[in-house]
Every structure is written in structure tokens, then in C-alpha cells.
């Protein structure tokens, strides 16, 4: 089944390295896609798309087409009513092309982000022909990818894009600007077990695989991305010669520096809760009471502080 999913947001590929900057918690990155224009074929800044599956050339960058829902070729679309500048972006999936689209964000908040939220308005511009198939475009994110075609991706089903008109038996054009053909997308993803460090990059994407029959056309408009929770940032150079080892650690953590001054160590879990606050004795800290996981260690010495990420096994 060929799926058309129109998303008012387009996704950055491995070929396109533009990135959105997240500089503060709850300050959104917004994209309404109207800048594409009624007939435009250029992606909004930072967004792009590749062939994520199908019989065609793997990971090939896809060319956008403008459509009001009448087209059904497998690719990425600038979707909206003819002549209207109210646009959205999405994809049709076919046997040869399973579109994958997304973008990346840089964490410039100064903290370690442990949660993010995405909202958008989903619009359906074409119906699917298989009443028994409720189409869904799978959302995922990655903290180690350098593009849409590599890295380790984790699913987040609360942000899947789902078909709205599910009882249709023929594939025809519909008006995605009508409220009856719209739904709200709103999902929050907790990433506290593998947090998003300050200065690091987070990638997001939707993958539109091929379903039975002729697929529907869905779109996202009014896209917004927010970092919604964070912990301490990790600083590196405030204490001369500071060393915190081994890492990963088990029962004992060693903390040394050039000055050999008295040191205090406080450990925080990924939710920002202080779980240990103790003096360093003979360059050692007993961590045997802590559970396995990722922590931030705050070290204080002679009025100076530094932080390090510590993994306990």
C-alpha cells in the first residue's frame, strides 16, 4: 500500500548537516512550513529526507514535490491546497521508496537534557484504500547518529503519526485544512537513562514504510520541539589537573588534582537528585551504595568546582 504522509515538518538527512539550536528549556524550535510556498520544492532550513527503505537506492536523498493530495508517487511532499501558502510536509510510501525524514538539534542549554516534547498538527490530504489497515509512521530518535542513515535509533510510539480517516476503501484526495481531517500530535519522551549532554546532537526522524493497498496522505503542520527537563551541565577545566577514575567504576571512585587540596564530591542521578555528598579521603570515594547507572559528579576544591559524568557498573 502506498502511504502518503504529509508533515508540516521535514527531516534532516545524513547529507544535510543543518541543525536547530536549543538554547533554553521550554523555549521551542518552531516550523510552520509556510516558507516553502504553494509550489516550492526546497526543504525548510535544517530539514531533509532520504529513502529509508524499499527497492530503490538505499539512503538516496529524496526530491520534494508540491501537491494538494492528488499525487500518489512515493516521495516527500509539500502539501496544501492549490494556491495556498498554508503548507505542511510529508511523504507517500511505495514499494520502491519508504521515505525517512527528520532533522537534528544541538543542546546549547548548558545542562544535560533528560526529556523532550514534540507537538504538531497532523493533516490528512489523501485517504487510503485498505479499511483493515490503520497506517502509522514510526518516530525514533538518536543520540549517536551523524545523519538519518546511521546510528542507534530508539522508538517513541507516542510520536508516531497515525492515519485519521481509517474507514475509507478508496484512495482519493481530501482537504487537509478541514478540522474533520486533522488531529493533534503531542508526545513527551523521557531520555534520562541516556541523557542529551550539553553540546551534543539529537536526531529525530519518522519512517514511512509501505502498507497494504494505496496509502493515505498525512501531514504535520505547526511543528514545535522543546527540551523540557535537564540536570547539571558537565564542566571540564575549573580544577587544575582534575582526574576522576576509573570510569566506568564499581565500588570506589578515585579523585585527584594538581593541588592535593581538600575535596568534596556530590553525585547526582540523571533526574538531578543528589544521591551522595561526601569528602574525598585518601583520594577515594566509596560508591558501593549506589545503583548501576549514569551520574554527574560535582567536585569542589578550594572554592573551585568542576563536574564529570560517571558511569557506575
Automatic annotation (TrEMBL):
* Secretion system C-terminal sorting domain segment(s): 244-312
Matching entries from InterPro entries are given as: Secre_tail (IPR026444)
Where would one find coiled-coil regions in this protein? Answer: none
Q: Name one Pfam family in it.
A: Por_Secre_tail
Q: Does the keyword Nucleus apply?
A: no
Please tell me whether the keyword Zinc is annotated for this protein: no
Keywords from UniProt, A to Z, are: Signal
Residues of the signal sequence?
Answer: 1-18
Q: What is this protein called?
A: Por secretion system C-terminal sorting domain-containing protein
User: To which species is this protein native?
Assistant: Flavobacterium terrae
Amino acid at each position: 500500500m502506498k502511504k502518503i504522509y504529509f508533515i508540516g515538518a521535514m527531516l534532516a538527512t545524513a547529507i544535510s548537516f543543518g541543525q536547530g539550536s536549543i538554547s533554553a528549556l521550554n523555549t521551542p524550535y518552531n516550523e510552520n512550513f509556510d516558507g516553502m510556498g504553494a509550489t516550492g520544492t526546497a526543504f525548510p532550513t535544517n530539514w531533509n529526507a532520504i529513502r529509508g527503505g524499499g527497492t530503490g537506492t538505499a539512503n538516496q536523498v529524496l526530491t520534494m514535490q508540491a501537491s494538494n493530495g492528488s499525487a500518489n508517487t512515493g516521495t516527500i511532499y509539500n502539501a496544501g491546497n492549490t494556491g495556498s501558502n498554508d503548507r505542511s510536509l510529508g511523504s507517500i510510501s511505495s514499494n520502491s521508496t519508504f521515505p525517512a525524514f527528520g532533522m537534528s538539534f544541538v543542546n546549547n542549554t548548558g545542562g544535560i537534557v533528560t526529556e523532550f516534547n514534540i507537538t504538531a498538527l497532523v493533516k490528512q490530504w489523501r485517504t487510503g484504500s485498505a479499511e483493515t489497515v490503520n497506517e502509522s509512521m514510526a518516530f525514533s530518535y538518536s543520540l549517536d547518529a551523524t545523519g538519518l542513515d546511521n546510528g542507534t535509533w530508539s522508538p517513541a510510539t507516542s510520536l508516531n503519526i497515525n492515519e485519521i480517516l481509517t474507514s475509507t476503501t478508496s484512495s482519493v484526495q481530501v482537504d487537509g485544512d478541514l478540522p474533520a481531517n486533522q488531529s493533534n500530535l503531542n508526545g513527551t519522551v523521557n531520555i534520562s537513562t541516556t541523557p542529551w549532554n550539553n553540546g551534543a546532537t539529537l536526531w529525530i526522524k519518522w519512517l514511512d514504510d509501505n502498507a497494504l493497498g494505496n496509502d493515505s496522505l498525512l501531514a504535520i503542520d505547526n511543528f514545535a520541539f522543546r527540551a523540557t527537563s535537564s540536570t547539571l551541565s558537565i564542566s571540564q577545566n575549573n580544577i587544575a589537573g582534575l582526574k576522576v577514575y576509573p570510569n566506568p567504576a564499581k565500588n570506589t571512585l578515585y579523585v585527584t588534582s594538581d593541588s592535593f587540596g581538600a575535596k568534596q564530591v556530590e553525585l547526582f542521578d540523571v533526574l538531578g537528585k543528589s544521591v551522595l555528598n561526601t569528602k574525598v579521603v585518601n583520594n577515594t570515594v566509596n560508591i558501593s551504595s549506589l545503583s548501576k547507572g549514569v551520574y554527574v559528579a560535582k567536585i569542589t576544591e578550594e572554592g573551585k568546582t568542576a563536574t564529570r559524568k560517571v558511569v557506575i557498573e
